[in-house]
Amino acid sequence: PEEQQSVIESMIQGVTLDLYHPTSSLASSRALKSYRDNALVFYYGSKSETVYKCMVTGTECSKEALVAGHIYRQQWPKSMLARFNIGLHKPENIIIMQPQLEKAFDKWQWVVLPEGPD
């Protein structure tokens, strides 16, 4: 109960920060390419294929037509990452998607809801 309250408070803080800090300029394009390439290798086995599938829609796209979006957002409290046992820029925290979907994701027009600990 006390730990759950702490988690909830941290998430509320993160969501509040999200409302006032746009995510589009937090990382350089070189860093974003690195996150994307690492996630491509993790999920698809290679960063040199000619076509990949958007993880949201399943649409086939070139690598250049896809971006890496963070599930646990960059501006959220870093203390929560250890509790969830994830790294901010690790592939497990990245979704490969089309840029327009990332923009909608950043605006909370759609969200990722985990199924459980597995």
How does the SSE layout of this entry go?
Blueprint: H1 2-20, H2 29-44, E1 52-53, E2 60-61, E3 67-70, H3 79-84, E4 94-97, H4 99-106
Antiparallel strand pairs: 1-2, 3-4
What would you say about this model in short?
The protein has helices at about 1-20, 30-45, 80-85, 100-105; strands at about 50-55, 60, 65-70, 95. It is mainly α and about 120 residues long.
How much helical structure, as a percent, in the residues? 40-55%
Termini Cα gap: 22 Å
Number of strands: 4
Instruction: Please tell me what the overall shape is.
Output: elongated
Which structural class do the helices and strands define?
mainly alpha
Structure, explained:
There is one protein chain. This protein has 118 residues and is mainly α.
Which characteristics define this entry?
mainly alpha; 4 strands; elongated; two-stranded antiparallel ribbon; 42% helix; 118 residues; 4 helices
